[in-house]
């Protein structure tokens, strides 16, 4: 079982309540009581995010379970509230090492991403490498790049400017914006984000 997780390069590494319980032998109820009691303190150390998990298939049912995602500071603070048993002390060391290893791995991936950026890996090549079996991946991401960079789709460019080749109808400034959007999408794809995640991230600050 991994101690620390991450989703994408821009997201903070985190551990979970389940990890803490499994490695310290502290009950889930006891950990949740501490989280609820010190929720404000934990929130001061970052967004206290969580996910809801459904009961496993084949089980006797039950209610969905709330799994908190704790960043390094939140997890460290929470552990200080536990009794300092031998298992808790050992877990502290393991967790510190795990966060360090994950952050080192993320740094390496960021460096690799920058190298790819310098090499200017083609937009289509990136999509093809990550979605080899999808017939619509390129058109979906291509359309997304236009929408994000220019506020219109390629079809709308065709209709508005009476052309069959929307790329040729763009100004130099529009072309530059479109290329930056494609590059940004390419980097997100290489980071492991899917289409909906990328769309959300692109339009979050607009």
TrEMBL record:
InterPro entries: Phage_regulatory_Rha (IPR014054)
Protein name: Rha family transcriptional regulator
Pfam families hit by this protein: Phage_pRha
